[in-house]
Design a protein that fits this description.
disordered N terminus; single chain; 7 helices; 71% helix
């Protein structure tokens, strides 16, 4: 779910000074709201299947907001290392909320959220080492040093594909159990959602490998 939508050419982007810490920004508010929406969706999933279409719509809004917070940060000059970290943390909260809820409902096998959680801890640990040395996950100060690693982890194509796979998995799996959808259609939607979920897990692991390799290099310094 990438957040690197380019700014209009006429819009000046003035990032915050490196040492400046600001929690109350519009970009951070968007990121935090995205996390709250994920919790709201899970509550709707347990409230009743008649709410699933609305839950699917809110899920798509939350996914769209992942791109919105990055755009807002650049548009309003709120770019900061703290904002980048908060964006990643919010991504973790949102995706783990969905994966765990789907496993609890029996829609996906339990090993899926376990893999995502383990990958998240390992990757965030490697990125914390980079952050201590003034590097970030993405952008001009990215921790990725090899062209292949930058492509797998930070390229627009890679991030878009991973974001699309998660978005499709989350939205379709919810829609597959909506009471308003005809049973025959729900079967095909569920299959598409499960395929998207497996693709997302594969990409989740593949995109973690270069980060862990770079983290191992940083740990040896």
């Amino acid at each position: 779910m990438p957040a690197d939508t380019p700014l209009p050419a006429h819009t000046p982007a003035k990032p915050q000074p490196a040492g400046r810490f600001r929690l109350r920004t519009w970009a951070n508010a968007v990121a935090l709201t995205r996390g709250l929406l994920a919790f709201a969706v899970v509550a709707m999933l347990y409230a009743g299947r008649e709410l699933y279409v609305a839950a699917c719509a809110i899920t798509l809004v939350a996914i769209w907001m992942d791109a919105l917070d990055g755009w807002v940060a650049r548009r309003l000059g709120e770019v900061s290392k703290f904002g980048a970290v908060l964006d990643i943390l919010t991504d973790r909260i949102v995706e783990m909320t969905y994966w765990i809820a789907f496993a609890a409902l029996g829609w996906i096998p339990v090993w899926m959220p376990l893999i995502v959680a383990a990958r998240g801890f390992l990757v965030d640990g490697a990125r914390s080492l980079a952050f201590e040395q003034g590097q970030t996950a993405f952008g001009d100060t990215t921790m990725m040093t090899s062209p292949l690693g930058r492509f797998i982890v930070a390229s627009r194509a890679s991030r878009n594909l991973y974001g699309f796979a998660k978005a499709a998995a989350f939205a379709l799996l919810i829609l597959a159990y909506a009471s308003q959808i005809p049973p025959n259609a729900r079967t095909y939607i569920r299959i598409a959602g499960e395929v998207s979920a497996y693709l997302a897990i594969i990409l989740c692991v593949v995109r973690a490998l270069p980060v862990l390799a770079e983290g191992a290099k940083l740990a040896e310094r």
